[in-house]
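Task 17 of the worksheet. Students: predict the tertiary structure of the chain below and write it out as structure tokens. Keep your answer in the requested format; marks are given for formatting as well as content.
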Amino acid sequence: MLLPRNIHGCPYLLLAPMEGVGDRCFRKAIATIGGFDEAVRDFLRVPRNAHIESLAKEYVADELNPIPLAAQLMGSDPELMAAMAQEMEKRGATRVDFNCGCPSKIVTGRGAGSSLLQDPRFLQEVASHMVKAVSIPVTIKMRSGFEDISLFEENLLAAQESGVAYITLHPRTKVDGYRPPARWDLIARAKQILTIPLVGNGDILTPQDAERMLRETGCDALMIGRGSVANPFIFNEIKAYFQGIPYEKEAHSLSTYFATYLAHVPPGTTPRTSVNKLKQILNFMFKANAPEKNLEMLTTQSVDPEEFLKLSLSLLLHSAKA
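Model answer:
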């Protein structure tokens, strides 16, 4: 499976799956700004007692139409994961991603997510079942290891041998969590090992970071997660950077972004919960764009989501001009 390039050599850009912060509200909101070529839904957990049809309803293939939305599955039962992949294909998924990276203790304690990196042969078995079950591409998103990188090469080769179309590598171990830095040298090493395409992920916060990762690692495409929460314009900025033209952020686009976010908060959500959801996003943005004192103000404002958002946008725009 080839990952196409955009114009002027800009790599294919993917919006990363992110548990919690990267939910449907966020995906719908950032789609109003756009710039990414494909998104990946936050994982659907496939426990050993999963009811496949009921669980599958959480995936909506045309959620971001016309931007494709891949399905991501997390589990460790080969037969159930294969059955779930089939159900995703029936529901219109053009790609199914296998989560081998989640570091949560609850997840790893059940043998899923990054815990699969402790047993390359079993990782290969689960992935192989998924690949054989569907006609659409199956891919893997993985970390560089569990406690360390001693099985790094074995996991890469096991994933490749399973028949997956490509691998996305987040070059931190489970133990590393999200602490910086992401080891881009491991992405470069993986690129030398693999014969299938490789997507680089981790610490892409600016267009310059995107260009540097591409240059230093030789990866075939880029996936951005938390960098897009801090700056939802980043995908457009990267595309403009590769064209050699400036990209101007528009205040009304940010207003539309947050209005869309609030519009897709599930019905029945309390105002306090809506504000707390906004805080998740805004904390990323304020840390990237505003003085620390503004973060403190976020914790003391009205519980009315519209009032809270109006104040927050005012602070963000003021900080951007400062």
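Marker's comment: Residues 271-289 form the longest helix (19 residues). The mean pLDDT is 90.
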